[in-house]
Amino acid sequence: MIKLILKTSFIILLCSVSFLAKAQIGFDYAQYDVGFAAGINQASSADVQTLKTTPSINLNFTYNQSPFINYIFNVEVGRLKGGSPNTTTQRQFENHFSAYSFRVQVQAGELIDYSQSAIANAFKNLYLSSGLGYINNNIVYRTDDALLLAYNQVLPFEPKTNEIFIPVRLGYEFKFFNSYNQPSVKIDLGYQYNFIMGDNLDGYVAGAHNDAYSQVTLGFKFAIGGVTSYRKQIHY
Q1: Which residues form the signal peptide (predicted)?
Q2: Which end of the chain has fewer CB atoms < 10 Å from its terminal CB, N or C?
Q3: CA-based angle 174:175:180, to the nearest 5?
Q4: pTM, full prediction
């Protein structure tokens, strides 16, 4: 009788462990991602009369506190350009910049129950992000203000400056899952607005407001390890 009880208990324990192991499938995720992205930029708040679209690229490293709370360190290089000889001021500039930023990203899946609704499940990867950044400006081309030159006046100008900026980003992360239902590849599409804490992004210190630039980026992230578990099922 004792042997029968022990045998039955062992079978029940084995089945319980097997059930719990299967229940965890879909809950695991990697804590670390590496990625890259390409974007198009525009100096959206600058001291020139026309704006142009220019490219940028970046590399990023992400620590995932959860599948939907992410800490992102980003390194970026790119160009900003604006102005035209056909405007009244004839101002033109070109900035070859490098930027470093840290952002905290919160996706909707952390805040909502997406298990009972197809619509909520579709919105779970929508995110809002912000943080702090540092930009190195390198003005490689700049013209003086034609209207001021007529009065023998010029605007202040520094070809190389460093400024703090605040990035604010809205985007969506498409997650692709491996055979263990872990998000292994992510495609990130986002719009980012960068508030510069200075006025030399375009090489012209003028106007009542600091400079800013906007970006639309498309990026790819790849899970690289540190697998851990999440409290909710990630894949539906």
Answers
A1: 1-23
A2: N
A3: 165
A4: 0.86
- Looking at residue 5, the DSSP 8-state letter turns out to be H
Q: Give the highest mean pLDDT range of 133-137, 197-201, 202-206.
A: 133-137
Are residues 137 and 165 in contact, defined by beta-carbon separation less than 8 angstroms?
Answer: no
Taking the C-alpha atoms of residue 90 and residue 195, their distance in angstroms, rounded to an integer, is 25
DSSP reduced 3-state for 199? coil
Q: How many domains does the chain have?
A: 1
Cα within 13 Å of Cα(117), Cβ side:
9
The owner of tokens 């992510």 is 186
Query: What residue numbers bound the domain in which 140 lies?
Result: 31-227
| Alpha carbon distance 26, 181 (integer Å) | 5
Q: Give me the residue label for tokens 């012209």.
A: 204
Phi, psi of 24 (to 5 degrees): -80, -15
Report the distance separating Cα 210 and Cα 201, nearest Å. Answer: 9
Size of the chain in residues: 236
Q: What 3-state class would DSSP assign to 112?
A: coil
At 16, is the secondary structure helix, strand, or coil? helix
In sequence order, which residues have a C-beta less than 8 Å from that of residue 133 and are 6 or more positions away?
A: 74, 99, 100, 101, 102, 164, 165, 166, 167, 194
Q: Rounded to the nearest 5°, which phi and psi values hold at 148?
A: -75, -35
> Which residues are CB-contacts of 207 (< 8 A; sequence separation ≥ 6)?
47, 199
User: One-letter amino acid identity for 22?
Assistant: K
> pLDDT tens, 26-37?
599 999 999 999
